[in-house]
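Action item from last meeting closed. Structure (153 res):
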């Protein structure tokens, strides 16, 4: 077996989801309460509001072995800090542009909005984003040694 073949067999995408503590995290909680299935490769990082999301957080996640990063916040107009989700969407857009410029793959970053009652949508987002990243393959900055065991670094 070639090293590339071994990498493909063992690799599972590692996803970091930055979720605001109000709507997005509540939706994740609801998905869990409803026992909805979504990939276990999605690691939720709780943030007070998506307005706290920073490009550096995403870059650090990639540096630590993430294959994809998404930000999930309240619906537009419903942010508990007024416009945090609007600012987050702009930052995600800016990050996509920067990632495209260096050939990293802007599809590896996304922004979602959902309400606290949208547990099924949370699970759907997690599944769709994981499928997207699985289709893209491992992060180009991931070392082959990391790919087989993405939880360790
Ligand atoms: Fe949820 Fe601001 S509190 S996005």
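Sequence:
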């Amino acid at each position: 077996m070639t090293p590339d073949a071994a990498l493909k067999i063992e690799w599972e995408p590692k996803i970091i989801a930055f979720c605001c503590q109000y709507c997005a995290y509540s939706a994740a909680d609801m998905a869990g309460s409803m026992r909805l299935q979504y990939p276990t490769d999605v690691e939720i990082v709780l943030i007070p509001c998506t307005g706290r999301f920073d490009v550096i957080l995403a870059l650090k996640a990639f540096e630590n072995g993430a294959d994809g990063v998404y930000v999930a916040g309240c619906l537009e107009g419903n942010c508990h800090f007024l416009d945090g989700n609007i600012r987050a969407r702009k930052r995600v857009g800016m990050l996509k542009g920067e990632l495209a410029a260096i050939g990293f793959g802007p599809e590896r970053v996304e922004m979602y909005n959902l309400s606290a009652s949208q547990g099924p949508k949370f699970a759907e987002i997690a599944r769709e984003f994981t499928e997207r990243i699985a289709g893209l393959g491992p992060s180009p900055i991931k070392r082959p040694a990391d790919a087989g065991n993405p939880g360790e670094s």
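Note appended to the action item: The chain has one domain: 12-139.
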